[in-house]
Design goal:
Layout (H helix, E strand, L loop, with lengths): L1 E2 L14 E2 L4 E2 L4 E4 L1 E3 L4 E2 L4 E4 L5 E3 L4 E2 L4 E4 L5 E3 L4 E2 L4 E8 L4 E2 L4 E7 L5 E2 L3
């Protein structure tokens, strides 16, 4: 499901997601608001990318967002993934977040208010 964000006191502009034509979004995923999905991205079943508060959400080329991952953030923040980032099943990405290229976020991890550098920095539940 692709839809515009709702109008709020902090965001009066409705914006539809932008999905590159080479990317796959499962029909059970929900993508709301100013979400920008790059080339050759895979968005699995039950993923939620909500740019209703955190905006924009930018998913770089060749990323892999696995089943039931949730992207959301605090008002006025954003979420940005570099290229070839993998977010495993059930992870919660809560902005503000900036991830460099080739990062991996482990199964059921929660990442909040973080900056991850380029190349294989791992996040896993403790």
């Amino acid at each position: 499901m692709l839809k515009a964000n709702c109008r709020t006191s902090w965001n009066s502009t409705e914006i539809m997601p932008q999905i590159h034509s080479s990317s796959y979004v499962d029909e059970s995923a929900t993508i709301i608001g100013d979400v920008r999905v790059g080339k050759d991205v895979y968005i699995a079943p039950s993923v939620s990318l909500r740019a209703d508060e955190a905006s924009p959400i930018i998913i770089g080329d060749e990323c892999n967002i696995q089943d039931s991952a949730v992207f959301h953030g605090l008002k006025g923040s954003s979420i940005e993934l570099g290229e070839n980032v993998s977010v495993a099943h059930g992870a919660v990405i809560h902005g503000p977040i900036k991830m460099g290229d080739e990062c991996f976020v482990g199964f059921n991890s929660v990442v909040h208010a973080s900056t991850l550098g380029k190349k294989w920095q791992f996040c896993a539940p403790r």
